[in-house]
Amino acid sequence: MSARELVVLGTASQVPTRHRNHNGYLLRWDGEGILFDPGEGTQRQMLRAGVAAHDLNRICVTHFHGDHSLGLAGVIQRVNLDRVPHPVTAHYPRSGQRFFDRLRYATAYRETVALAEAPVDADGVLVAAGAYTLEARRLSHPVESFGYRLVEPDGRRMLPDRLAAHGIQGPDVGRLQRDGSLRGVPLDAVSEVRRGQRFAFVMDTRLCEGVHALAEGCDLLVIESTFLDEDERLAVEHGHLTAGQAARAARDAGVRHLVLTHFSQRYTDPEEFERQARAAGYEGELTVARDLLRVPLPKRR
What we know:
seven-stranded mixed sheet; single chain; about 25% strand; alpha/beta
């Protein structure tokens, strides 16, 4: 199993279908799990995908429309029923606090887990952990919505040929990495920057500055494409993207792997989303999401 992968739990917008559950996406990032937009039925989809409540460390909700949040009640209660041994943090628009409260306490249950509430009210950094930084950006939708972006800090890649040229080997490599220089040889002379991986999650929105900021330079971008291009007027009216719009945003941002999802029930041919994304000029790796799909993050550059 990949240490960093996206587990797709559901891909439908507004109305689930026989083949598509409401939204739900788990990002596995080394030892952590971040659950995005748990719609109705997420708890069952987790079971089908082999995802346990113990896998969850964070829950990120973009906005409080039902297809992105009605599964919160079941997920939160399952976290407590299973007595998850670590804290779980929930991020969501502060303007939807009343909806979060109703879902958290939708029915009676015994609280056994420390669920931390960390509402979002502006663009900026939400978490600055050692393994990643989690950021939020405001999107354009009829209700307040935020997208999320996870960025790994840049590291360094040691270059064996340069190390050998300077006679540095064994424990001395670790000393050089720790101290920044060794016997007059700076770290920069025997290594290069290893770019940290980047992931973004963009749900219900029109094209806006937030979409482009979230997508910039991503290794893996999960983005809604509710409508096909011929229905762009409906997309704008209801605060959504088309396949072509999502693909052009990914193209312009230099995205390596694009995952299209959140499809309207009016469409029956998922391949048309891929055709329109390619026609829009996106040439990177492309996935039209389906339920229970696993998508590994691309290998490092």
